[in-house]
Fold each of these.
Amino acid sequence: MATTDTPTETPAEASTAERAGHSERLRQTDLAQQIQFLAAKARARGTAHANRMLTAELDLKVRQFSVLSLAASGLNPTQRELSQFLDLDPSQIVALVDGLEQRGLVLRETDPTDRRSRIIVATDAGRSVRDRGQAITEASDDAVLADLTAQEREQLRALLTKIAF
Amino acid sequence: MATTDTPTETPAEASTAERAGHSERLRQTDLAQQIQFLAAKARARGTAHANRMLTAELDLKVRQFSVLSLAASGLNPTQRELSQFLDLDPSQIVALVDGLEQRGLVLRETDPTDRRSRIIVATDAGRSVRDRGQAITEASDDAVLADLTAQEREQLRALLTKIAF
DNA sequence: TATTGTTATACTCTATAACTATA
DNA sequence: TATAGTTATAGAGTATAACAATA
């Protein structure tokens, strides 16, 4: 709505000295009020944090962990389902499953009711790694959401679920 | 929302026929309860939607629009500040500003108080494009958040702000 | 004829290091 | 010596099209 959102209290002539290390002053802008922008920043923080922890302890990225977690869910997803649910191209699923399969964490089984489809299931080793990954990603969530109360986290989960699905 | 959704004890022998087009059954998994995962899905939807609308009407991507919006804010950000605020490498800011500058939407001005720094400001044309982009991204937010009430959107904005900053 | 998985390819994005000009 | 911006480049991620096997 605002055509020029110049905040009256910050003159255009602010010097570099006043600006140094204060990019947070840009939080006043219209952009920083948009939910889409905030969601992008929040998920960037969360993904970066989870990637660091998963990589350090399990040599896994979040994408790989997501596939492993679904493979270990007991729901026997096909690659096509993984592609749809994770919003990834089928060819990307191939690469992710390849990596997990080479490490002995998942298996490809041909679906007996449709021999075109491959069902991805976790091995015993895969389930073990998934359990540790689950603990790690939950800890990561806790760290990133440290400023939120338990109630606020539940609110957030409910709201995001409405948007994601 | 699905038809007859399989309860928690979904047998491992679910057939492909029962599975066809129902990757939503994976919403039952632990993974789909994690806030980090939900945030990633929500922002993927939001970014994709905003990118389509911005590209169609203004031939801009969200990244470019973000820079343009901050340049038009009246706060005279330096490239370094844009880098910090948008969580992008300084070299990526160079490319983004190059594109906007070639289209006559922003200008690089040398900061008189520190000749190393470049202040990015929007031209008249840039401000006009930003205003249209602002309307487009707000409409995009509305579309993606259609299932949320005004109150819920404010809740979400407040929660995401706590996480993002 | 349509769909699943696969391969190949090109394109975009991201991360890193080195260089310049200023401080 | 340190910092802002720039360039170059390599790596990761993404998107597209074509193909074989199966439906």
Amino acid sequence: MTKSWFEDNTLSLAQRLLGTVLVHDSLEGRTAGVIVETEAYLTDDPACHAYRRKTLRNAAMFGPAGSIYVYRIYGMHQCVNISGGKEGAGEAVLIRALQPLNGQELMSQRRKQVIFNEKELCKGPARLVQAMGINMTMNHWMIQGSPLYLEPGLNQSFDIVQTTRIGLTKGIDLPYRFYLANNPFISRK
DNA sequence: CGCACGATGCTCT
DNA sequence: GAGCATCGTGCGC
């Protein structure tokens, strides 16, 4: 995956990321999962953090394609995005759910699960951030060549469902959410 | 299973 | 000072 792969059309990037594998090699060990749910946030989109202008918080969305954008939400959670478009565009794809592939025990520890429950490990944007050991220090890192990186998924074909996005008060009618059909690891139908 | 609600702190107005 | 791209718990079915 080259820079141009991330640069080319953020709405299509949200779909092309489905089925790829997000990996984090940390000191604690490796965790990895298939991306099964994404949402696109575009420059002319009122729900996008970059809709108004570049600020300290959203700056990574304006970085070169493949920049990692981590932000805090509701005072206690964090979510991770991968920026798309040309540098300065202010676009990104939110990762909303993973299907765990590797390091499920470590994920469970990080999530402070009392009872191991694979389905709940990465079901939702803040949960997967916790399970993968992603944090604010990774803001502005590049997904190409970091300990947090992407690998091509298996070349199996799958159906993609397109719907409106979750948890928003603005841009609620824009169909920018994508997920793998019939996948039990998505955050919700 | 689904729904309602409170936690919690930072960013932008 | 308002408003969050959320999650866990508790309760009812």
